[in-house]
Write a structure and sequence with these properties.
- The complex is a heterodimer of chains A (182) and B (257).
- With 182 residues, chain A is of the alpha+beta class.
- Chain A is built from nine helices and six strands; from the N terminus they run αβαβαβββαβααααα.
- Chain A has helices at residues 2-5, 22-31, 43-48, 76-82, 97-100, 115-120, 124-133, 146-152, 154-175, and strands spanning 12-19, 36-42, 54-59, 62-68, 73-74, 88-94.
- Chain A has a six-stranded antiparallel sheet with strand order 1-6-2-3-4-5.
- In chain A, strand 3 (54-59) and strand 4 form a beta hairpin.
- In chain A, helix 4 crosses helix 8 (146-152).
- The longest helix of chain A has 22 residues, at 154-175.
- Chain B has an eight-stranded mixed sheet with strand order 3-4-2-5-1-6-7-8, sandwiched between helices.
- In chain B, strand 3 and strand 4 form a beta hairpin.
- Classes of the chains: A alpha+beta (182), B alpha/beta (257).
- Chain A binds chain B through residues 79-80, 83, 85, 118-122, 124, 141, 145-148, 150-152, 157, 160-161, 164-165, 167-169, 171-172, 175-177, 179-182, and chain B through 122, 124-125, 128, 132, 142-149, 152-153, 155-157, 159-162, 172, 174, 176-178, 181-182, 185-186, 188-189, 200, 251-252, 254.
């Protein structure tokens, strides 16, 4: 899967959790100064046994690359693809920096350091801490705003809307609010 | 005339209460405005409005068998009528959220704009009730993917109950956010316009600590100016007070959570 597409050498699993929010995994990677990668599998995959997953690589706890296995997109677009409702299974793998260096020479998959925390997890404080930990040469501006990229994906938005509509109707029935529906 | 707006966000942390009071104060220049803390499980409007020790509150109005007149829980503050909600667990447990409709019906008879500061969730009958009963929602979002997803969900819930969308307010906008492009694309999916982008502001946090709405605490702050711009972009529709009162009274009474 992802690791092959990204040509990531297999790392050593150092943490595996189901988390309600990607911020937890990003925070853990930053805290332990992870050099390696994280595989984030959203709820949908956990429940449906699909293979959609997001892969983020890290250098000293700071995100470098993002890739999404199902959409085959990288960089900020991959973050938008990964934005599914939690929970997520988050597995962190450690790699030797020398094994990771050639992989990181893939500018088209790169994301700005604070972007996963800010846009994927909606956690500006974590984003600030991540940027503070990032080397200066990584602090350039992003080309494409992932929020704008997310909003460009009409099929995804329609899926969110359809799911919410269905949930609203199911819950109205549960709560005895059917008569209020239009 | 009266129009009832539910100020909603889907999740917490977007600055919904700050936004409710800021919109209320700005609209109060032109309209008679009543603000109700409809987040009966996690009330915090009282802290923003310097009403920490207010008694009675909405909780007292929602407890069956108490005969507190609605007007006793209405406090005239900052040019608005403010109905705070208490924060005690006992008050929450004793409150029957279904009685909110009667409270709102009573208040609707005597105001132009009713703003319901709504719960930051859609996971219970009482949480969804403000969205069910309002004429339209004002969706308060941060320009992030999770927040937009939540906002889309709020709008679908509102649509399901025939509640329109008056607009989207982007709050806590940070330097470097590409708000122009995001706002442009947001408007494709929401039934109302993007009302404004309010910059992330230390003044908003200071106002909360001081127990004052932002527009009272720091009227010259950029965020305050943006909230005024949002209020100006919000078109308040004429509604017959009687219609709103009837609609609230006839709404299904949810059980206590």
């Amino acid at each position: 899967m992802s690791a092959e597409t990204l040509r990531l050498p297999r790392g050593e699993l150092v943490r595996s959790r189901v988390v309600s929010d990607p911020a937890t995994a990003l925070g853990a990677a930053l805290e332990r100064g992870l050099t390696g990668y994280a595989v984030l599998e959203p709820q949908e995959t956990l429940l449906l046994d699909g293979d959609a997953a997001g892969v983020l690589t890290f250098d000293d706890g700071v995100p470098v690359l993002a890739y999404h296995t199902e959409s085959d997109r990288g960089g900020p677009a991959a973050l938008a693809d990964l934005a599914e409702p939690g929970p997520y299974r988050a597995d962190l793998y450690a790699l030797d920096a020398t094994d990771l260096a050639p992989v990181h020479d893939t500018p088209e998959l790169e994301v700005p350091p604070g972007m996963p925390a800010e846009r994927l997890a909606g956690d500006p404080d974590l984003a600030d801490r991540t940027r503070a930990a990032a080397p200066d040469d990584r602090l350039d501006d992003a080309d494409e705003d992932p929020v704008a990229s997310f909003l460009e994906d009409e099929a995804k938005i329609e899926a969110i809307q359809a799911e919410a509509r269905e949930e609203a109707r199911e819950r109205a029935a549960e709560w005895g609010l059917d008569d209020e529906l239009v | 005339m009266v129009e009832v707006f539910a100020v909603a966000s889907g999740k917490g942390g977007t600055g919904k209460t700050t936004s409710t009071l800021a919109l209320g104060m700005a609209l109060a220049d032109e309209y008679d405005v009543t603000v109700i803390d409809a987040d009966t499980g996690m009330a915090n409007l009282l802290f923003h409005a310097g009403l920490d020790d207010a008694e009675p509150t909405l909780h007292d109005l929602l407890i069956e068998g108490t005969d507190v007149p609605v007007q006793q829980a209405v406090y005239e503050r900052f040019g608005m009528s403010v109905v705070p909600c208490g924060t005690s667990l006992a008050g929450f447990q004793a409150a029957d959220p279904g009685r909110l409709r009667n409270v709102v019906a009573d208040l609707a008879a005597d105001t132009d704009v009713l703003l319901l500061d709504s719960p930051a969730a859609l996971d219970s009958k009482s949480a969804v009730l403000p969205v069910v009963l309002a004429d339209r929602v004002v969706v308060v979002l941060q320009p992030t993917i999770p927040s937009l997803s939540d906002g889309l969900k709020v709008q679908e819930y509102a649509r399901s109950y025939g509640t329109g969308t008056a607009g989207v307010l982007f709050n806590k906008v940070r330097e470097g956010d590409d708000l122009d492009r995001v706002a442009d694309r947001t408007e494709k999916y929401f039934d109302g316009p993007v009302l404004a982008g309010v910059p992330d502001s230390d003044a908003a946090r200071a106002a909360r600590r001081a127990g004052e709405p932002l527009l009272a605490h720091a009227p010259d702050d950029d965020a305050a100016a943006a909230f005024r711009e949002a209020a100006a972009a919000l078109t308040v529709r004429d509604g017959e007070s009687g219609d709103v009162a009837d609609r609230f009274r006839s709404a299904v009474v949810p059980e206590s959570p």
